[in-house]
Structure formats: C-alpha cells, structure tokens
Amino acid sequence: MNLQSLTPAQLRRERVLAEAARAQVIDDMIAAGRGLERHSQTVAKSRMPCADELTLRFVATSIRSADITAEENRRLTYRGSLKRTPGN
User: Fold this and answer.
1) Best CA proximity match to 15, nearest among 55, 80, 70
2) Which domain holds residue 15?
3) Residue 2 lies in a domain
4) Angle between helix 39-46 and 53-79 (nearest 10)
5) Running along the chain, 88 residues long, what does each successive block of 10 average in pLDDT?
6) How many domains does the chain have?
7) Is residue 30 domain-resident?
8) Global pTM?
9) What pLDDT shows up at residue 10?
10) pLDDT at 32 (0 to 100)
C-alpha cells in the first residue's frame, strides 16, 4: 500500500492498525519468554536462515510502524498537517 496516497483519516487508521499489530507481537514475544530480547537481537535473528515466524512478524510490524511514522513526519514537516501532497 502506498502511504503517500492515503487521506489523513486513512493514515491515522493505518497507524492504529499497525500499533495494534505491534502490541500483539510484543505480547506474543513476552508469552514466548522473549520479553527481554533487544530489538537489535531480534533483527539479527531475522537475518538468519532459521528465523522463526515470531521474529519475522516482529520485524515486519516494526518496519510498517516506522514507514507510517516517516510518512507522518514527512507530511507534518512539509505541509504542517497530515494532508496528502497534491498529485498523490
């Protein structure tokens, strides 16, 4: 999904969904006994050929959340609001 083409309401909805998914993955990490694992350790594990599904989900949700934050920051920096750039 192209974040630049989303309306402000759609972008906020994506933020809510991404945060809910991220919270669920963190809960799953804690339940799996990996609550004290550092972000960098999990990312390093994701690069290994034997990376488990939980590790891959953690990294995917982290990337999605970071992408949404970057788009929000871009819009706020250049437009002063979450309105999308004309032409997108």
Assistant:
1) 70
2) 7-79
3) no
4) 120
5) 90 96 97 95 94 95 96 89 77
6) 1
7) yes
8) 0.85
9) 95
10) 96
> Does residue 15 contact residue 88 with C-beta atoms inside 8 Å?
no
**Which tokens go with 17?**
């969904």
Q: What's the pLDDT score for residue 41?
A: 95
The answer to whether residues 18 and 65 touch, using CB atoms and an 8 Å cutoff, is yes
**Locus of tokens 């990312």:** 43
58 inside domain: yes
C-alpha distances in Å from residue 57, one per residue of 9, 63, 64: 25, 10, 10
- Give the torsion sign (CA, 74, 81, 23, 17): negative
Residue whose C-alpha is closest to residue 15's, from 85, 61, 65, 62:
65
DSSP the chain: --GGG--HHHHHHHHHHHHHHHHHHHHHHHHTT-TT--HHHHHHHHTSTT--HHHHHHHHHHHHHHHHHHHHHHHHHHHSSSPPPTT-
Query: pLDDT at position 85, please?
Result: 74
